[in-house]
Amino acid sequence: MPTRRIAVMVGAGSGWGNGILRGIVHYAVAHGPWEFCVEFPGLSVVAVRDWQVDGIIVPVRGEEYARLFRERPVPVVNVCGIVGEPGLPTVRVDDMAAGRLGAEHLLERGFRHYAFCGFADFNFSDRRREGFGETVRKAGHDVSVYVQDPALKTEWSWDRQEMDLARWVASLAGPVGIMASNDERAWHLTEACRRVGVRVPEEAAIIGVDNDELRCEFSSPPTSSVAVPAERIGFEAAAMLDRLIQGGPAPREPVLIRPQGVVARRSTDVVAVDDPEVVRAFHFIRDHAGEPFEVDDLVKEVGTPRQELEERFRTNLGHTVEAEIHRARVRRAERILSDTDLAIPAAAAASGFRSPAHFSSAFRRLTGLSPSEYRQRFRLR
Q1: Alpha carbons 192 and 206: distance in angstroms, whole number
Q2: Cα–chain-centroid distance for residue 310?
Q3: CATH 2.60.120.200: does it fit domain 276-378?
Q4: Residue 65 half-sphere exposure, CB side, CA atoms within 13 Å?
Q5: Within 13 Å and on the Cβ side, how many CA atoms surround 48?
Q6: 142-156 burial, b for 16+ CB within 10 Å, e for fewer?
Q7: Which CATH number is 95-228+262-268 given?
Q8: Run of H or E including 109
Q9: Pairing of strands 224-227, 261-263
Q10: pLDDT at 72
């Protein structure tokens, strides 16, 4: 096969960008040969019009940006959701699903108050806010929303922007579960909370999106995040571009890649209830999810009769003790399936399940996928 010359306009540096690039490389190694023209600092997008390439992979960042690439005579694939309708073949994360996952994570912690912090000029932020709000309202709660006017980005200093966000945080009824539209926004939130003395996670639990590990760990406290399978997006975008180069039809709708799940860190390590036995049980479940304990073992640990503990869980968290155990074990299993090569029976045991059959049933009920389907979707290697 002749070597394909591919322009990749995805910058390295962020967790998302690095993941996209890894996915593209995985595809090229398996289906090449490909050689790459890559974006570098200071390169004008207009200059890309002069590149002699067979195809382009790009995150479309604005309508003018989209128009420029629509005019190119070679196939182009978009890999992000900043522009709602870029008029280009697109592979991106399912932003509505990301919003729902963030909401479910906070709802599991028993909050009564919820909020969303996003950006006014990004379509992905709107979709994540929509998925978050839909899920929270279905559970019977209202959502406070902060979306900064994009015009103020150039008029205000960073201190003034942060103070505006801090005033909003201070106005929220608490304790509150807040979802940010991405990890950058989550970091903004933790700094705003610090300014006004709102404790994270005790008074405001924060979750972002993308699971950019460096940014999440850099925040204080480290922030929980909805993991986006950026490698999968890069791999599928490269596959789509290859089909287009070979004369295949362009898809009519964006290809949406399901988020991988929630990576929980200190920023949401809290139970927003006043019942100390429920809080103690919740943390025991999280700390021992990989061990094969039963509800009766938990009852002995907490020292509360089983029926009473069940009633307290339903009152404070809206579900049973067993349901909470299954949630914790399935979340652990998601990481094992995506990050390791353990066989399914071994993954079941490492997640605290007594049998592979029980594991598969609980996993499918909570994720909609079998363990093997989940691994196939989220583990490239």
Answers
A1: 12
A2: 31
A3: no
A4: 17
A5: 31
A6: ebbebbbeeeeeeee
A7: 3.40.50.2300
A8: none
A9: antiparallel
A10: 83
Q: What is the pLDDT of residues 128-186, one digit of tens each?
A: 999 999 999 999 999 999 987 665 566 556 677 788 899 999 999 989 999 999 999 99
CATH superfamily of 4-93+230-260: Response regulator (3.40.50.2300)
Domain ranges of the chain: 4-93+230-260, 95-228+262-268, 276-378
> The tokens 């791999």 sit on which residue?
235
Residue with structure tokens 């980005």? 153
List Cα–Cα distances, 308 to 156, 276, 278, 282, in angstroms: 54, 13, 10, 15
pLDDT digits (tens, 9 = 90+) for 43-53: 556 566 667 89
Q: Which residue has the tokens 């040969």?
A: 33
pTM of the model: 0.86
The DSSP result for 268-308, as a single string, is: G-----S-HHHHHHHHHHHHTTTS---HHHHHHHHTS-HHH
